[in-house]
Design brief:
mainly alpha; two-stranded parallel sheet; 4 helices; elongated
């Protein structure tokens, strides 16, 4: 439950349009359950999460898009920094080789 979120899990329309990607928490708890039934157990999963003191994030569609885009931005910035440092290290090695 810590690594995934639900969005619009009460909506059958959102389920069919997204290929049931909107009920990921329930899918990971019951992977063999037919996809169209996952939204029906969402309330039970929320109760279980509360009982076990686990986070259960149920976002709106826009909230999920915002979270995804924010994550992509953060990962992109981190990767750019990593590549810059690797490029700088490689350039320093080449400069050292050329100097010798």
């Amino acid at each position: 439950m810590r690594g995934t979120v639900d969005w619009a899990c009460d909506s059958a329309f959102a389920g069919y349009v997204s290929g049931f990607l909107n009920v990921q928490i329930e899918h990971h708890m019951a992977p063999q359950m037919p996809m169209e039934n996952l939204r029906h157990v969402a309330k039970d999963c929320k109760k279980l999460a509360a009982k076990l003191d686990l986070p259960h994030r149920d976002l709106t569609f826009l909230g999920a898009v915002r979270l995804m885009l924010g994550g992509l931005y953060t990962v992109g910035r981190e990767e750019l920094q990593r590549r810059k440092s690797v490029t700088a290290a490689a350039a320093a090695v080449l400069d050292k080789l050329h100097a010798d």
